[in-house]
Amino acid sequence: MNRQIIETSEFFTQMEQFGFFDTVEEHLPEDFTLIYDIARILESETHSLARGLAPIFQLQDTAPRDRSTETILIPNVVEAEEYEADLIRSATEVRSIYPYQFLLPETVFLQRLAERSLWMPRPRVPRNFRYQTESDQFAPDDRKQKVYILFDTSSSMQQHFRIHLAKAIAYIFLKQNKRELGTVFFRTFDITVGDLKTARDVPSFDALISDLMHINAVGNGTVLQKALATAVADIQHESQLSHAQILVITDGVAHIDYDQLRADMGESITVNTVKIGSARMQIDAKIIEDQIYQSNTPDAVRLRQLIAQRKDVDLQLSTASGHLRQESLRSQVAMLQRQIDTLTERIGVHVGEHYGLEIERLSTVYVNVDDIDPKRLFSFDAATVDDIVALAEALLKSLKEERQVDDIKRAAVLYDHLYLLLQYNDDEAHRLEKAAKDLEDMLDRILNKPTGAGADVSISDMERIQLRHMLGGSMGKDPFSLARLLRLLWLKLVRWWKMRRQLKVFAAITGRSARMRSTRRRQAQ
């Protein structure tokens, strides 16, 4: 029964799907288990946060489709979408030939026309590849939606659990659309734009989710303009990206050139955005000056003209000799300055109201959600706490019966989760604290109790590598945090492994067996 509770636990299943047990490439992010709780809330149709994000989660057309074999196994690709080079078959097709052939000398052109040896692009029936239908998770289909995700990893995303909420949003979006998406493209952006990652099948899709969960927000900048331009360029230059939608997940603290991006996107590319929090860019004189000299708005263009005119009048005033001439030029300078001040003030007001919010105008679907309140979001009712405590008790009983490395990892992760929840559950704190203390005592006994050959914890080389990479995450501020537990576990296993090898070498050389030091000490006592 204990084993069934552990193996069917949604918490451990999600942790495994996130790659927090099996990863060997990245250290665990800070407070990583909270993503599970946020994702669980987003999947609730009644929660206000989930309702606010519904337009993003429902981007994919959810209308029912005909799921017959004919419509699922053979994608409907129209003939005109694929072409191949072919010779013309009649003189009437001369208007469809490749244009460069009109540069041929007239006699050569007429000869080839008579011989029907001119080349033209001819539509052909596309090749349809059948897909297996046994999988209920992912079934590629040319009719399915293509999404290009841009994920903000700037340092501002680390505030107010924004990076955790962003990961949960991306995960739920991918999970809910997994069956319907043909291909998923993914890039991060902060001070630079990250590498392009692609998911087309179940393994690459799961790998993308794991990569997403291990992202850290460390960039000291937000190049949203460059990220969008990169995505647009990718879509325009790669046929497989044709008509892909761009989904931006960001805290919105960035300025973009709306007019330039709108022109580059054309009619076939759309942008949808999730903005987390209410952060705004701080507008200063340098930003206003940049807009004056870089913007192509009518006010900015007119202001630059007025500034140039004033410089010209100032130059004339410096060389004017007559009193009347000087007074006339001073009057022009004053008039120009009043116009300059008026336009500068108008541009400043416009910049203050719109600067950094251009992404909202650019987006077809735009959702702005507030920063999460951890005290409200991570405060659970008694029933939810019952499930968490029951899972801890089942894991404790399992560890008493058999100490498996997987269960030790689970216990360390669950201990860390309980420690985090203690900060936000005052009413149930005593129960969560007791469960955490029980797990702490169990892990302490496992790590510190001397073990003999019969009670040794078996661990493979790959598991040792995984544990080593898990040591870098400091998940709690308590002295007995997950990082400390795993480090102690790692050191203990290393000592045990070295001692075992030494005993084998001793037995091979002397022909006698030897016991570990801890066992001899117990016999002496």
* Broad structural category: alpha/beta
Series of secondary-structure elements, N-terminal to C-terminal: HHHHHHEHEEHEEHHEHEHHHHEHHHHHHH
Strand line-up in the sheet with most strands: 5-4-3-6-7-8
Radius of gyration: 33 Å
> What would the CATH topology of the largest domain be?
Rossmann fold
Largest sheet: 6 strands, mixed
Instruction: Bin the strand percentage.
Output: 5-15%
CATH superfamily assignment of the largest domain?
von Willebrand factor, type A domain
Average the pLDDT over all residues and give the rounded result.
Answer: 77
Number of helices: 22
By CATH, the architecture of the largest domain is named 3-Layer(aba) Sandwich
For the secondary structure, the number of strands is 8
Mind telling me the CATH class of the largest domain? Alpha Beta
